[in-house]
Amino acid sequence: MASQDLTYQDVAEHNTKKDLYVVIHDKIFDCSKFVDEHPGGEEVLLDVAGQDATEAFEDVGHSDEARETLEQLKVGTLKRNPGDPKPKTPAPGAVSPQANNESAGLGVGLYAVVLIGGLVAYAAYQYLQQQQAVQGA
Q1: CB neighbour list of residue 94: distance below 8 Å, 6 or more residues apart
Q2: Which residues form the signal peptide (predicted)?
Q3: How far is it, in rounded angstroms, from Cα 63 to Cα 60?
């Protein structure tokens, strides 16, 4: 099938299990033949049928293999018209201006502090129990 330029309105008409288009990074994919094979189940695809699925696709963190499969389903490119919704997620590899990489390790550090604190508390409890047993004997 030759690549074609379609509008959001054109894509929106393909919103059923047997005729399912999605937009990802302004490329249009026909997922109709892939619905039954999709590892996440057909409901996931049906939820974004005929819509921009960029955010949903990127949020899941698809593998390179999934991205290759997706490329095989490409049927066209999105032709944006004035008033069309803007993409919510930047293209892969793009740096988000609001990205704050300095606090990326905060979650791991917090878990480490909690874990170490718990171990110290357990050791102190065991020590006190042992001291009580020695004094009571």
Answers
A1: none
A2: none
A3: 9
Tell whether 17 and 75 lie within a shared domain.
yes
Domain identity same for 32 and 64? yes
Task: State how many domains the chain has.
Answer: 2
- Would you tell me how many other CB atoms lie within 10 Å of the CB of residue 54? 21
Q: Please give the residue range of the domain that contains residue 127.
A: 95-137
**Strand order from edge to edge, sheet including 27-30:** 4-6, 74-78, 27-30, 19-24, 15-16
This prediction has a pTM of 0.61
**pLDDT per residue as tens digits for the range 35-88:** 999 988 899 999 999 999 999 999 988 999 999 999 999 999 998 887 776 765
Domain termination residue (choose one: 29, 53, 79):
79
